[in-house]
Design brief:
The complex is a heterodimer of chains A (about 600) and B (about 120). With about 600 residues, chain A is α/β, with parallel strands linked by helices. Helix content of chain A is about 40%, strand content about 15%. The longest helix of chain A has 18 residues. The termini of chain A are far apart. Chain B has a five-stranded mixed beta sheet with strand order 2-1-3-4-5, covered by helices on one side. In chain B, helix 3 crosses helix 4. The chains are: A alpha/beta (about 600), B alpha+beta (about 120). Chains A and B meet through strand 1 and helix 5 of A and helix 1, strand 1, helix 3 and strand 2 of B.
Chain lengths: ~600, ~120
């Protein structure tokens, strides 16, 4: 009997692997076999399901019941109770944080119910290592149409009609980019995929590659036909071993089926893809640096023009798009540009995937139509801020982006609206911060990252970011002066105007946007030598506020250095000589009573 | 499998889809075998096996089989509930292999409710 009555879809993205989903899979198969259920239940390892905070996750179909945070020790109970006796295990259901209500059905969980999936449409539904399952979900419908029925001009027109813009962050119209490369005369052209996802807190591209690699291969094949290229490269960072493994499997399966290689599907068109592993330098996400890296040179940007569409990889016309951009392409060709253009706002079409992280209940991968408000993403889908704290700001676009404060939470996500409030769409990292986050410290973190990752080619970026970091460190150490804030602004404008590549030009953004919205915090650090969020160690006094202290002893119990003196029904006291300034007391105090 | 033609691709899509479509829900018939301890003791396991055997012989993708716990009428086990979309669910009692085959062939496939061993219609 080859017909399973139920499929157990177990999440197998990097996040869930780290949380133990591989052991769970082995245990599950063992338990099912020992009860003779292995012919009725099929265990399928899917890519990332999106709800990473609740992983490892398993969805039982056809019932549609989802289990969250499964441990190996839960497997036996699941098999005995649910699969053998038909009694779903309630304690492993999703529990709504606000109401503590359990929700068994996957589609009833608010996190999923409010998303619209195009790029992530196969998430949690297919085994990414089986090309047949991708094909069954309407995969490889777009590429055959492009190869057999369409001319390059028609493909480019369809892409223009769709209004798709680059999902790497800059938002350049994909159809126009392809058109430039198509019009460049050359014997050899290249199609590249940028999978060098480097922004802190971003993991969209990794998840797409892990969950649905064929969607990217198909998109690249269509791009190749559009511009007349026969060779493609995927530039993927070596820190993504699972994505690399699944890409390799996907490419070899596509070659075996003749969906890559010579004379694809009898169309006479040749195209093949190779994976190039990057060593994880942030700057190699910049297009010209990425191309240098593939050529075997040091990954450094060069001035543009000439643009890659004229002179790219090995000085040949090249199209470079991001993973998420390619993942949209096959569906646009299959369903038509008008279909895609029907989703989103006037200037930004389609959907966008965000990696929602930070101080938010539902950490995970979120795909929403363009035009959805930040509030909807963070509060309705993300479930709001945990620990009864307050929202402070959301950081968009990583080191090139900025933060959006509460008063702009109703901003719709599209390229222009986000830029208007001082951030950028970016590749889709969305880091939520609560009122315990220090904005100066956040700016310092990003500046530290940038100056670490600066390639050093141009002086404004190499020296300028170094100086900015020094100033920010000075302020967070409580040694800042008012001139320092002015200096930060001056340095920012010089770097913006004079840095060579996009990364340098946008490097001051985290500082500028925090200065715009949270100048008072900078001033508190400088003038009052006080960190309002109590994050900057040097500015915390470690003194118990006797009025606020409720004598609960949590600080006493959490102090690793026995520096807190406390007895029942007495206020706590912190012994400065023993205190190691580890912040454990502050982060655990339920009453915010330590200054 | 070697290189595909466009027809191979289409066939492959349809064949694989039959195996994976149950992941997307959308059943028109849900059959539930009640498999509490009482049900299993009364023979629900064999009933389930027969049901799966019957199911694998059809080409229908929209019939989903599930199991559930005891529904409280232990004396009438094994119980099987058949719910055709848009109709009220019918519970069958004292189901054995032959009754299961009959229920599947007549009720599930042809829509004829087998009143002889129906226990109840859930309103």
């Amino acid at each position: 009997m080859d017909k399973y009555r139920s499929h157990l879809l177990l999440c197998g993205g990097t996040g869930c692997h780290a949380a133990g989903s591989r052991e769970i899979k082995d245990e599950l198969e063992k338990e099912l076999a020992s009860r003779g259920l292995d012919k009725e239940f099929k265990v399928v390892e899917t890519g990332c399901n999106g709800f990473c905070a609740q992983g490892p996750m398993m969805i039982v179909q056809p019932e549609g019941i989802s289990y969250q945070k499964i441990k190996r020790s839960d497997v036996r109970e699941l098999v005995e109770e649910h699969f053998l006796k038909g009694r779903p295990v309630k304690r492993l259901f999703y529990r709504e944080p606000a109401s503590a209500e359990t929700i068994p059905g996957i589609n009833d969980i608010p996190f999923y119910a409010k998303q619209q999936l195009i790029v992530l449409r196969n998430r949690g539904l297919i085994d990414p290592e089986k090309i047949d399952e991708y094909i069954a979900r309407d995969g490889y419908l777009g590429a055959p149409r492009a190869l057999l029925e369409m001319t390059p001009e028609e493909i480019i027109n369809e892409m223009k009609k769709s209004g798709l813009r680059g999902r790497g962050g800059a938002g350049f119209p994909t159809g126009s980019k392809w058109e430039f490369a198509f019009k460049s005369q050359s014997d050899v052209k290249y199609v590249l995929c940028n999978a060098d996802e480097g922004d802190p807190g971003a993991f969209m591209d990794r998840s797409v590659l892990e969950a649905d690699p064929h969607a990217v291969l198909e998109g690249m094949t269509i791009a190749a036909k559009a511009i007349g290229a026969h060779q493609g490269y995927i530039y993927c960072r070596a820190e993504y071993p699972l994505a690399l493994k699944r890409l390799d499997i996907a490419i070899s399966q596509a070659r075996e089926y003749g969906l890559l290689g010579r004379d694809i599907l009898g169309s006479g068109f040749d195209f093949d893809i190779e994976v190039y592993q990057g060593a994880g330098a942030f700057v190699c996400g910049e297009e010209t640096a990425l191309m240098h890296s593939i050529e075997g040179k040091r990954g450094m940007p060069r001035p543009r023009p000439p643009f890659p569409a004229q002179q790219g990889l090995w000085k040949k016309p090249t199209v470079l798009n991001n993973v998420e951009t390619y993942a949209n392409v096959a569906q646009i060709i299959y369903k038509g540009g008008d279909w895609y253009a029907g989703i989103g706002t006037a200037t930004s079409k389609g959907t966008k995937v965000f990696a929602l992280t930070g101080d938010v209940q539902n950490i995970g991968l979120v795909e929403v139509p363009m035009g959805t408000s930040l509030r909807t993403i963070i509060f309705d889908i993300g479930g709001g801020i945990p620990k009864k704290r307050k929202f402070k700001a959301v950081q968009l676009g990583g080191p090139s982006g900025g933060c959006v404060p509460e008063q702009h939470l109703d901003t719709p996500v599209d390229y222009e609206s986000i830029a208007r409030v001082g951030a950028i769409m970016g590749s889709g990292g969305m880091i939520v911060m609560d009122n315990h986050s220090c904005m100066v410290d956040m700016a310092r973190f990003f500046m530290d990252f940038i100056q670490d990752e600066s390639c050093g080619k141009c002086t404004p970026c190499r020296e300028g970011t170094r100086r900015m970091l020094e100033v920010l460190e000075k302020i967070t150490h409580g040694e800042g002066e008012m001139e320092d804030i002015k200096l930060l602004e001056d340095l920012s404008s010089v770097i913006k105007d004079s840095a060579l590549c996009g990364l340098g030009q946008t490097a001051p953004n985290p500082v500028l946007s925090t200065l715009q919205y949270f100048r008072d915090e900078y001033e508190a650090h400088v003038l009052e030598k006080r960190c309002p969020a109590k994050r900057c160690h040097a500015l915390v006094k470690f003194v118990v506020d006797l009025k606020k202290c409720k004598k609960c002893g949590v600080c006493y119990n959490n102090c690793p250095a026995q520096a807190v003196e406390w007895k029942k029904k007495e206020t706590a006291f912190i012994n400065k000589e023993k205190c190691v300034r580890c912040m454990s007391c502050i982060s655990n105090c339920p009453f915010d009573a330590i200054d | 499998m070697g290189k595909l033609t466009i027809e191979d691709l289409k066939r492959l899509r349809e064949d694989t889809r039959k195996k994976t479509v149950l992941r997307e829900g959308g059943a028109t018939v849900n059959i539930t075998v009640h498999m509490g301890t009482c049900g299993i003791a009364a023979g629900a396991r064999e009933v389930m096996d027969v049901l799966l055997e019957e199911l694998s012989q059809t080409d229908r993708q929209d019939i989903h089989v599930m199991n559930s716990g005891c529904m409280g009428m232990c004396s009438s086990e094994p119980n099987v509930t058949v719910e055709v979309k848009g109709q009220e669910p019918i519970i069958y009692q004292h189901v054995d292999k032959n009754r299961m085959r009959q229920i599947f062939k007549r009720h599930v496939l042809k829509g004829e409710i087998q009143t002889d061993f129906a226990l109840a219609r859930i309103q």
